[in-house]
Amino acid sequence: MKPNPKKNKSQGVLIKYFKLYKFHFLVGFLSLLTVDLFQLQIPVITGNITDGLQSGNYEFSNLLNQVLTLLLIGLLIACFRFIWRYFIFGTSRKIEYGLRNDFFGHLEKLSLRFFNEHKTGDLMAHATNDLNAIRMMVGPGVLMSLDAITLCVLVIYQMITKISLNLTLVAIIPLPLIAIGGIFFGRAIRARFKDKQEAFAHMSEMVQENISGVQVVKAFVQETKEIKAFNETNKNNYDKNMRVIKLFAIMNPLAMLVTGLSIAIVLGYGGYMTMLGNITLGDFVAFTQYLLMLVWPMIAFGWCINIMSHGLASLSRFQNILDEKPEIIDEETVKQIDSIKGDIVIDNLTFNYPGSGLKELDNISVTVNKGETLGIVGRTGSGKTTLVNMLLRMYNPPRGTIFIDDVDIMDIPLKVLRHSIGYVPQDNFLFSDTISRNIAFGVIETSDEYIECAAKNANVHDNIIEFSNKYATVVGERGVTLSGGQKQRISIARALIKDPAIMILDDSVSAVDTNTEEQILNHIKEERKDKTTIIIAHRISTIQNSDKIIVIDEGKIIESGTHDSLVEQKGLYYNMVEKQQLEKELEKE
Ligand SMILES: Nc1ncnc2c1ncn2[C@@H]1O[C@H](COP(=O)(O)OP(=O)(O)OP(=O)(O)O)[C@@H](O)[C@H]1O
User: Fold this and answer.
1) Which InterPro entries is this protein grouped with (predicted)?
2) Among residues 565, 511, 559, which one has the least CA distance to residue 538?
3) Which of 182, 340, 377, 529 minimizes the number of CB atoms within 10 Å of its CB?
4) Which residue ranges make up each domain of the chain?
5) Superfamily of the domain at 13-322
């Protein structure tokens, strides 16, 4: 991936959410603290009971009191546990929800360049796997870290003040080893986890591409090759996962070993102190219990390092996407314009795609007045769609090269510009939704009559009413249940219903027969008498009635005029007419 010069490190995306939910985190943390404080009382009570029993004059009512207190503490612990779980885990889900919305909202604002550089599968992995790791970090990760630290501090304090400073110091000698190990392992896990997430993203890309391109895979009988390639990607993902697991598998037993060492020391040294009478038996029992209470934080440290490392690695991947700046935005010079009439002037437009050394458009100049139709023809790859990309501002054209109603296109609010253009793209993408919702996609309010009218003008109404669910028929992913021609015509209806000031048809009737094409073009002509229409085509019949026709070759306008004048010029246009007529005659035979 090329570095983006416009990239600007944003302030941590999580800070906003920590600020927003500070109350939730505070309540959660206070409840956690309460649970820990209550837990600390359990060894005190057990110690009291042990000492009481050992004294020989312990009364049953005392014992009952202590047991009831224990029960009460247990009940309170359960209540406060519920509160912290609800506040902290619930909040982590809220943050995940917010981040996912932020991510999607941000993606919607990014330019085509970004999507050309990032694969869908990779972006999907960000929205699923990475977000999951971030949620684990802000929920269980934060919680366990706080819990482990608080419990550790409180337990050690209790050990020192209630029992013995010496015994405590001896018991906690091995514990710093865990902290040192944590730093070392944390760093390694983070690096390996990043690799693991990238391997998963790569695998997602592959699955997504294979499902989208299933027809091509089958048609070229490439199933076995694709399965083999997938196996390799899957194996890479497995290996990267194993590298993380191995590290974690070493880390956990090491932490347990250190804790075990601590317990062994306490049993030995503490037992010796009890025998000497330096501490009571109750103290010894309580101390052992305190030490056992430290086992959980020690294990939790390991988990925390793991979860936090995963979360931080994912956060950095996630942040990279959020730091991408939308490039196509309203500039400061944008004018207050509510609508567009449709006079287009293109003046010496030269453009090359970012990173391409070639001129995809070279000195293009053409004028289309409101109400006129411009036809564009040219060999494949000559720059026709690139010109449309400029008009839609999918990429920014140089200033002073395209004017609509005498206003530089760069100064027209992006929303107004795109609302004013009805675009029928070459790939006729349809959403997995009903036909009526696909047609009404670009309009805020509409009615069944308008939808039907647009479908009739696009000559697809008769096909639609033959489906059992008519306009409520759901089209499959990318409209696979429809024929190419039906998809094209639904896309045309989607643009027509907007009744746009400028309509652009990019090779949009190529999949329909010439009769249907003629009917559609007649409807468009009738409906759009006083509006601007741009038609790109390979078939001369599609554009021959246009008011103006330009022929583009290698990014340059090489011929322009009306159909008749272009035929007279006997250039590329004339050759295309000749060739297509010959093909027609051959078809007839
Ligand atoms: N996003 C892009 N980044 C870099 N180069 C691109 C991009 N899109 C198109 N091109 C290049 O720009 C040139 C013009 O492409 P364009 O899609 O405008 O051609 P076209 O005339 O519409 O072709 P067709 O008739 O096949 O649709 C081609 O050489 C193409 O490879």
Assistant:
1) AAA+_ATPase, ABC1_TM_dom, ABC1_TM_sf, ABC_transporter-like_ATP-bd, ABC_transporter-like_CS, P-loop_NTPase, Type_1_exporter
2) 511
3) 529
4) 13-322, 339-420+502-516+529-589, 427-499
5) ABC transporter type 1, transmembrane domain (1.20.1560.10)
List the beta bridge partners of residue 367: 345
- Residue-wise pLDDT for 234-257, tens only, equals 999 999 999 988 887 887 788 778
Taking a C-beta distance cutoff of 8 angstroms, is the pair 81, 33 a contact?
no
Q: Is the CB of 360 under 6 A from ligand 1?
A: yes
- Cα gap 89→112, rounded to integer Å: 37
353 ligand 1 Cβ < 6 A:
yes
CATH topology of domain 427-499: Rossmann fold (3.40.50)
Dist. CA 92 → ligand 1 center (Å): 45
CATH superfamily to which 339-420+502-516+529-589 belongs: P-loop containing nucleotide triphosphate hydrolases (3.40.50.300)
Which residue reads 């490039």 in tokens? 327
pTM above 0.95, yes or no: no
Measured CA angle at 284 (ends 279, 288), to 5 deg: 150
| Nearest one of 522, 549, 523 to 535, comparing CA atoms | 549
| Ramachandran angles phi, psi of 569, nearest 5° | -65, -20
Q: Which two tokens stand for residue 394?
A: 């999918």
Tens-digit pLDDT profile for residues 441-471:
988 888 899 999 999 999 899 989 988 888 9
